[in-house]
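Here is one chain, start to finish.
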Amino acid sequence: MAATELTNVGANIYGLGSTSDATNLYESQQTDLTDPEVFINLLIEEMKNQDPLDPMSNQEYVAQLAQLSLVEQTRTINTNLETLQLFQSSINNAQSVSMIGKEVKASGDSFYFDGDGTATLKYQLDEDAATVTIKVYKSDGTLQRTLQLGSQESGEQTAEWDGANNDGSPLDAGNYTFAVTATDAEGNAVTASTYLTGRVTGIVFKDGVPYMQIGSQEVTMGDILEIFEGN
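Its structure:
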């Protein structure tokens, strides 16, 4: 139904004197034209006020009723989806809480350096590598240290960072990230993925999403790679 027709019909439904009054009503009250009751009222008024010399065809009535049916189905689907999302959210929350106390391996490239000693960086190589390079960044993304390592076999690997930058100056405690690149003997890139391990000590919720606390880091359920029973 066109906007002009809606305002004409609206004037009759609400006893308004003109289509401009109807337009003002729709704009001020934002009438929901997808509401089945409003839709039916509009259709009835349209039938009552149609030109008797040029009445609406049966096909047009059927088309508008089909539109109403589609609107109703859409509203029902949306309601069901909202219910399903709430149900899924409650399941995810319950699963997350059950993770407390478990040892996990999770995807992640961030870590906390306490400013003393060294930090262990963990990563996995998909293939044997001839060269491995690790770059350590501050939380603001500035490069602090580049570690050039020799050849390493495929599988889980670790590297120790002494907490110093490329000039040898010790860095302050704080959050850092690291990235690993590797190549094989022919110079082709080898896939390297970073991860962290630790015990889940708590759960925090942000915008309805549960995050598991592992030390000072937070990961989602989707980041978990392996789960072990805590000691």
